[in-house]
Amino acid sequence: MLRNGLEPWHLLIVAIVIILLFGSKKLPEAARGLGKSMRILKSEAKAMKDDEGAAHSVPGDGAAN
Predict the structure, then answer these.
(1) Which of 2, 35, 41, 60 has its CA 20 to 30 A from that of 51?
(2) What pTM, to 2 d.p., does this model score?
């Protein structure tokens, strides 16, 4: 019964429920907020990765006195 996971009609039902819960006027605003949050998260993750890479490439601190 649950062998195939989500089928197209399951997604249709989920979409209808979301539209009924949030209303058609709130959905674009929610989508914009979600997109902005995802962009911020992506940029922060990239910045952390870049900082980590830079920290590993810094030569030793005072080993050649």
Answers:
(1) 35
(2) 0.51
